[in-house]
Design goal:
Helix content is 42%, strand content 17%. By secondary structure, the chain is α+β, with helices and mostly antiparallel strands. It is globular and about 65 Å long.
Length: 434
């Protein structure tokens, strides 16, 4: 099951339902004055990292002069500080959050159940994305996007060396070997220890999961047959020198991309925008194909997407809920999220947007989201990311992958070590964990 569905049943299983239901939206907000009211205007703060989202916020402020939203941009990694900031009363009113991280904030009563404000908004969003914010009968946010995968590749490089675009993972290894043999300075991909989404999306494609849950017991399943299968492929790529090991999203990383050293990314919709921003001179040289799969025809994966949540510090939850609903469902706002943010929308209206079928000059005149839509329509829903202490798990996996990159351990060892750290973190939260 995908994140939200699994998380919902899990909260019931671990018995925190009673404590959560004692927190009402109004009661949670009444003790804090993080939002303010001046000159008759309600002031709300909104923290996030979506590219270009300021344009949507400006549009809201223009059309809603009495509810002013102040947007604060952060790096996505800064979200690891949310919990501390919420407890300090300085986190702001509205937070962008990865959907798979919501469970901890619900358990710790740091974000509001906003059912009373958005309970009738379900039909505005796809069932899968709505499920990620629906937990134990409550609604803890508004879904913003989802994250199906597609294969972005340097068409000119593949054509130059006569390499066929892979449809299966076996063909992917063949393509990796042919590219690197033809030019030792060209790698099919980068191995980025600090960016684990590449790995994660592939093990979700195999139906992998960070956790399973039964009755009142969680079981860490990161080190599973599905995940070990991906680890073996990554180990082969690393051992044969077919991937370039480096930190992702650094100047050195983008230099390698611009120099043609990295020939492809099997990744998420928003990366199309980041790629255009950091490698503008490569316009027309990239193309998008369907992600490889075992069969060559899916299923594929969705790496969770994101949501907007309202913290317990918010003094005006009703107005905040009105804003995040508008932000993620209004056609004009959603078009901004698509065109400037590179997001694959959660709103049904977004899937019908002309922007979803618009052709991209950067990607050789292809419809930008065509392959992502194909992935979204054929997902492996057997696995999931949801569960407690996922942030700890992500940090641990990055640390262990750093050791893999340095040759200190194997991918299999990294999974075993990460699983142990994840289990300890969940136990430390007072949960029953196998």
């Amino acid at each position: 099951m995908r994140n939200g569905r699994k998380v919902g049943s899990a909260i019931i299983a671990i018995g925190v339902a009673a404590s959560m239901l004692t927190m009402t939206a109004c009661g949670a907000a009444g003790e804090n004055d993080n939002a303010s009211q001046s000159n008759g205007k309600i002031q709300l703060t909104f923290t996030g990292w979506v590219p270009g989202i300021e344009s949507a916020v400006d549009l809201w402020n223009k059309n809603n002069p009495n509810i002013h939203v102040n947007f604060k941009r952060i790096a996505s990694e800064s979200r690891k500080n949310y919990s501390t900031l919420i407890e300090a009363g300085t986190a702001g009113d509205i937070l962008q959050m990865s959907a798979f991280e919501m469970i901890d904030y619900v358990i710790d009563q740091q974000i509001m159940d906003i059912s009373k404000y958005v309970g009738d908004k379900k039909d505005l969003f796809t069932d899968g994305t709505w499920s990620t914010v629906s937990i134990n009968g409550g609604i803890y946010g508004i879904p913003q996007d989802s994250a199906p995968t597609a294969f972005m590749y340097r068409k000119d490089i593949f054509e130059q060396y006569g390499v066929r675009v892979p449809k299966t993972w076996d063909e992917y290894l063949v393509a990796a070997r042919k590219l690197h043999k033809a030019n030792p300075n060209v790698y099919i991909a980068a191995f980025t220890p600090n960016v684990i989404d590449f790995f994660e999306s592939e093990f979700l494609q195999e139906g992998g999961s960070w956790y399973t849950v039964a009755d009142d017991t969680w079981k860490v399943t990161l080190d599973s047959p599905q995940t070990r299968k991906i680890a073996e492929r990554y180990q082969t790529l690393l051992d044969e020198g077919l991937v370039k090991t480096m930190e992702g999203s650094t100047p050195e990383f983008w230099s390698a991309v611009n120099n043609g050293e990295i020939a492809s990314f099997n990744y998420l919709p928003w990366f199309t925008t980041i790629l255009k921003e950091h490698a503008p001179d490569l316009s027309g040289k990239w193309a998008i194909a369907q992600s490889p799969s075992d069969s060559g025809n899916g299923p594929w994966s969705d790496d969770g997407g994101g949501a907007n949540v309202i913290t317990k510090n918010c003094k005006y939850p009703e107005q905040a809920a009105k804003f995040i609903t508008w932000l993620n469902s209004d056609p004009e706002s959603v078009d901004i999220l698509i065109t400037k943010g590179g997001l694959f929308p959660a709103a049904k209206t977004g899937l019908k947007s002309s922007e979803m079928v618009a052709k991209s000059d950067y990607f050789g005149g292809q419809p930008l989201y065509e392959k992502f839509i194909e992935s979204a329509n054929n997902l492996n829903t057997k696995g999931g990311i949801g569960g407690p202490a996922i942030g700890v798990g992500h940090t641990a996996l990055k640390d262990e992958f750093g050791k893999v990159g340095n040759g200190e351990e194997t991918f299999k060892e990294a999974l075993t070590n990460t699983s142990a750290k994840l289990k300890k973190a969940a136990v430390d939260k007072g949960l029953n964990v196998q």
